[in-house]
Amino acid sequence: MDKMWASFIAMGLMLVATVIITFARQKTKGFVRFILSFVAFLLFVPILLYMLLSMI
Fold first, then answer.
1. How far apart are CA 19 and CA 46, in angstroms?
2. What are the angstrom distances between the C-alpha of 44 and each of 1, 6, 29, 50, 51?
């Protein structure tokens, strides 16, 4: 059951990162685009951890 929740959290964070990247590339420019892309990139650290946790 815990593995299921870990995978759901990883999928949810991936969805959030995808939405942030899509918004940053379509609607913003310059420094704001960089900050949003960087935040989305930082989300991949917990995504990776939750993904590995769900596989163990």
1. 16
2. 23, 14, 22, 10, 10
For residue 1, give the DSSP letter.
-
- How do residues 19-41 score in pLDDT, each as one tens digit? 999 999 999 999 999 999 999 99
Q: What is the pTM of this model?
A: 0.86
Tabulate helix, strand, coil % of the chain (nearest 5).
95, 0, 5
For residue 39, what are the CA distances in angstroms to 3, 42, 53, 55? 26, 5, 22, 25
Tell me how many degrees the CA angle 31-40-18 measures, rounded to the nearest 5. Answer: 115
Q: Which amino acid belongs to residue 47?
A: I
CB 47 within 8 A of CB 3: no
